[in-house]
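Lest this sound abstract, we let one protein speak, letters for residues, whole numbers for local backbone shapes, and leave readers to judge:
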Amino acid sequence: MEFRAPTVAAETNEHYKKYLTKNLQNNEEGKAAFERLLKDLGNTIDHYPDWHPLLVIPRNHYQKDGTLSELYKRLDHTVLFVRGFVTCPYSVEDADNLVNSANELPGINAYRYESVLYSDEAYPVVIEAVDVELEADGTIRSRDALAWCTQDLVKNARLAEVAETWWNLRDCLLGGPHGSRSSLLVNQYTGGHIRKILEALNNSGMFGPIKEWSLGMLSKSKQDKIGSTLIRTALQNYNNIDDKFEFELHGEICKADVRDTWKDGSEISVNIMIGDYDLCVQGFYYPEKDLLQSNSPKGKRALAEKFL
């Protein structure tokens, strides 16, 4: 399905507005406070791309990797926006300590928010990346996003063992929610150029051989077909005795692990691997309804397409 940023933004903003205001005694005042944050910080989002200054600055400052909650201590009931985030600790001491520690980071501005959010007993704190500027569509300015993304991609090039494809890294490069080449943080122009930069770096060989894993370039129907074909063939070769066995399909040796999940025949779990993780499929089969559910297959595209 096509990623429609205005529609997704409206849905995401409404979801997080409800999250931050539903428990407040003065619900309308909370909604007004939330709208002010939207104006200052941009749309709400689910997660940042790896290159976002709110992640990169503390990682560089502390010389360590980490998630948002590991890099900024004392976060509680946190909602992310394009330029920054609001978090609502229940202790005034925790709120003040968070503001003080965040303000020690270059390029980060933190302050106690004047309005109540999430709970009447909480002490909201806003933390924003000073250098993040937004385009008219609410996404991060293209030249900044491209520069930050490129810097993050090449920083560990000498230590890399494999090159990750666009489909492997799309979630990390676009942030979430996202579509095939854009998100609420980067528009299609920026996302398209991020992909071109990644592919140019991969093709240069600086990261090593390209690792294929995600099959996100295939439609959901094709992914489901691959999973269904392999899982049903494994079930046909299952003798109800051996959990682990091999079978051949389209010239490939498939290693299967089939188990009765609850030992009552109601659910059969199936794991299939071809080669050394060249293609992996996982799923469940429910005999009573003849229902098969499979997760998205992982591996090499050329191999996966043999089972369409």
User: Anything to note?
Assistant: The CA atoms of residues 96 and 291 lie 54 Å apart. The chain is about 40% helix and 20% strand. The first helix runs from residue 5 to 21. The mean pLDDT is 96.
